[in-house]
Amino acid sequence: MHTMSPRIHIIGLGSVGVIVANALASLRQRPDLTLMFHRRLSCEGQLSLTVNGIYKNVRSGFDVEEFQDGHWRRRPSSYDDPHVSPIDTLIVAVKANYTRSVLNTVKHRLSRNSTILFLQNGMGILEEVDESVFPDPAQRPHYMIGINTNGTSRTGPLSAHHTSLGEMPFGMAPRLSSPELSHGQWHQDPRLIRSARPMIDALSNSPNLNARLVSAEDILHLQLKKLAINAVMNPLTALLECKIGMLYSSQQPWIRRMIELMLEEISAVLRALPLSFQTSLDLEAEFAAKQLTSMVEAFARRLPQHSSSMMQDIGKGSETEIAYLNGFLIRLGMQLGINCPVNNYIMQAVLEKQESQRYGGDKQRANTQQLRKAQPL
C-alpha cells in the first residue's frame, strides 16, 4: 500500500524560517516541504532559498502556497482553485505580533491531531492563540516551542545570513498558568504524537541547526532565559541604533546602569513565578539579578556584531515584538504585585520611536498612537 510522504508546512520566511527550510531541504531523506507566503510572489519559476555566512547553501524543490483574496492557493494554480487540504505539521516563524492573524487564515486546515511548532521571540503568544484562534481545548492542535540561538539576519526576500552557530532545542510547550497542554499533559512525549514525529526526526537530523528534542521543563528554562536577554538587548539596541556589542563597549556608564536596573526588575518577576507543576528548576538561583547580568553580558560578547530584529523592524517602519518581551514581563509583574517602571519606560520609548518611524516623524500623531497601543500593557 502506498503511503504519502510526511509533509511539513512552514509559514514565516524571515531569516529563521529561511535557515530552517533550507536545512530541512538539505536532508538526504527530506520531507515534503510547503512554503506559505502571505503575499503573491514576484519571482517566476522554481523558488529557491539561499543561506550565506558560515556556510553557503541554495535549495529548491519546494511546494508553494500564496494567500490571495482570503484563500490559500498553490503556485502555480488557477485562480478558482483554493487549497484546503489538511495540515498535519506547521512551523510558525512569523513575528509574535502577527501570529494570531496568520493562524486565523489556516485554522480550518488544522485539527486536534495537528502539531504546531512556534519558532518566535517572546512569551504570552500561546495564551492569545488559545483565546482567539483555538478556544475549544478539545479541538486544539498540539503546541511545541523551539528556542533558536543561531545568529541570523535577513538579506533578501528569500535569503538569509547565518552569522553564528547556536542551537535550536525544541519540545512540548509548557504553560505558566496550567500544567495541561491542549488535550494532553505538559510532560507528554511528543514522539507519541503521530503528526509530530516526522518533524522531530527531520529537525534533529538537519545540518547546521543543532536542533534537539528536550523536555517541556527545559523549554521553559530556556524560554525564560532568552526572554530576559531579548528584553534587554532588543529595545536598547533599537533605541540607541547600535549593534549588541556596543552596549558593553560604550564608555557611557549610564547604559550599563540601565541594563542593571532592567534586569533587577526582570529578576524579581521571574523569581516570583508561581509554577503550577513540580520542577527541578531553581528560580531563585537561576534568575538572580547577578546571574542574569552575567548571562546577558556573555551573550553580547559572543555576538558583538549582531543587529537585533527590533532595531531592524523600527528601521523598516514595522511593528515590533515589544509587547511579548518587556510588555509580557510588565503584565506578569502586575499580576504578581511587582512594578517594573524602568522596563515600562523603555517599552514606551520603543513604542514612541516605532510609531514616529511609521508616521514619518509626526510626533504628535505618534504619541497618540503610542499611548493608545500601550493602554493594555
TrEMBL record:
<feature type="domain" description="Ketopantoate reductase C-terminal">
    <location>
        <begin position="218"/>
        <end position="353"/>
    </location>
</feature>
<feature type="region of interest" description="Disordered">
    <location>
        <begin position="357"/>
        <end position="377"/>
    </location>
</feature>
<keyword id="KW-0560">Oxidoreductase</keyword>
<dbReference type="InterPro" id="IPR013752">
    <property type="entry name" value="KPA_reductase"/>
</dbReference>
<dbReference type="InterPro" id="IPR036291">
    <property type="entry name" value="NAD(P)-bd_dom_sf"/>
</dbReference>
<dbReference type="InterPro" id="IPR013328">
    <property type="entry name" value="6PGD_dom2"/>
</dbReference>
<dbReference type="Pfam" id="PF02558">
    <property type="entry name" value="ApbA"/>
</dbReference>
<dbReference type="GO" id="GO:0050661">
    <property type="term" value="F:NADP binding"/>
</dbReference>
<comment type="similarity">
    <text>Belongs to the ketopantoate reductase family.</text>
</comment>
<keyword id="KW-0521">NADP</keyword>
<dbReference type="GO" id="GO:0008677">
    <property type="term" value="F:2-dehydropantoate 2-reductase activity"/>
</dbReference>
<dbReference type="GO" id="GO:0015940">
    <property type="term" value="P:pantothenate biosynthetic process"/>
</dbReference>
<dbReference type="InterPro" id="IPR013332">
    <property type="entry name" value="KPR_N"/>
</dbReference>
<dbReference type="InterPro" id="IPR050838">
    <property type="entry name" value="Ketopantoate_reductase"/>
</dbReference>
<dbReference type="Pfam" id="PF08546">
    <property type="entry name" value="ApbA_C"/>
</dbReference>
<protein>
    <recommendedName>
        <fullName>2-dehydropantoate 2-reductase</fullName>
        <ecNumber>1.1.1.169</ecNumber>
    </recommendedName>
</protein>
<dbReference type="InterPro" id="IPR003710">
    <property type="entry name" value="ApbA"/>
</dbReference>
<dbReference type="InterPro" id="IPR008927">
    <property type="entry name" value="6-PGluconate_DH-like_C_sf"/>
</dbReference>
<feature type="compositionally biased region" description="Polar residues">
    <location>
        <begin position="366"/>
        <end position="377"/>
    </location>
</feature>
<dbReference type="GO" id="GO:0005739">
    <property type="term" value="C:mitochondrion"/>
</dbReference>
<feature type="domain" description="Ketopantoate reductase N-terminal">
    <location>
        <begin position="8"/>
        <end position="173"/>
    </location>
</feature>
